[in-house]
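Handout, section B. The chain below has 349 residues.
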Amino acid sequence: MHSKFDGVGLPPPALPVAIPMTAFESNRSRLSVAPMMAWTDRHCRYLLRLASPSAQLFTEMITTGALLHGGRLNLLEHDASEHPLALQLGGNHPEALARCARLAEERGYDEVNLNVGCPSERVQEGAIGACLMASPHLIADCVAAMRDAVDIPVTVKCRLGIDDQTSDAFLDEFVGTVARAGCERFYVHARIALLRGLSPAQNRSIPPLRHDRVVALKQRFMHLQIHLNGGLQTTDDVRAALQSCDGAMIGRAAYHDPLLLARLHQSMHDEAWDLSAHALLEGYRPYLEGQLHNGVPLKTMTRHLLGLFTGMTGARRYRRVMSDAKRLAGNDPTILDDALVGLRERSAA
């Protein structure tokens, strides 16, 4: 079952035709876009899907409380084009997570992922996210409950460790315990998380990247799927990750430059897939206008377009026009036409 927005805003003929869902196995996508709070909402995911027909997409982390007690089932809405699509949950109660996993399966999600990697203080206050790495048996109970409740894959996203629990022995105990409960796929952010004294942004930069530790983890758990996350910025980075791990997960690099996903799809799946920023925006516009008709504010969709023309002549003016609060408040889609005036590729030096 999909949302009431299914099928709205199909790309025009100028945009390359997406690969049908039957052309690949959704639960085995080797490239994925990380769940990012306040970023990977359904409007962002629609744009990213236009850029890549093959990458697996993730929702933002949605807490069990928001779904079960806050009445926020609208958070599960998505467009049919977003598949393969995973719901990332934040929670620590097996029964609540199982109920939310069932909601995800009923609404057509392809995977349920448990967040065991977010280091924010707000998340820690709810005893969810990265702090749960200290309780592998609780995570195992959560995974087992979700596995019993649904037929779709149940996966975990984690860090290399937390605070003073950062050894390979600790990581192996965590992964082994959770795997025995039925988790076969781990998305591993290649940094530890320092839960005291660092902000989430600092936890994405100060603890050193250790891709080598994720690769070594894969070598120790050859029977599991280990996907490398963290610091992947280019097609070469992703290619290297895929040579040593089962999958690569990219985050902010894809958000700031959706065409990175198009280049990755081209190199991995379809040499003919040659997508420009203008074509991507042209494909997104019918969706944007359809959502405006449904009452979605313009600014909630255009904010995902700000980085689309980075590096082109006129990009600064484009961002300035697209950030005009007064025009955005008027929900007038012609702001796109005005923003595009003067944009062109820069001449080679």
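Note. The chain has a mean pLDDT of 90. Compare this with the example in section A.
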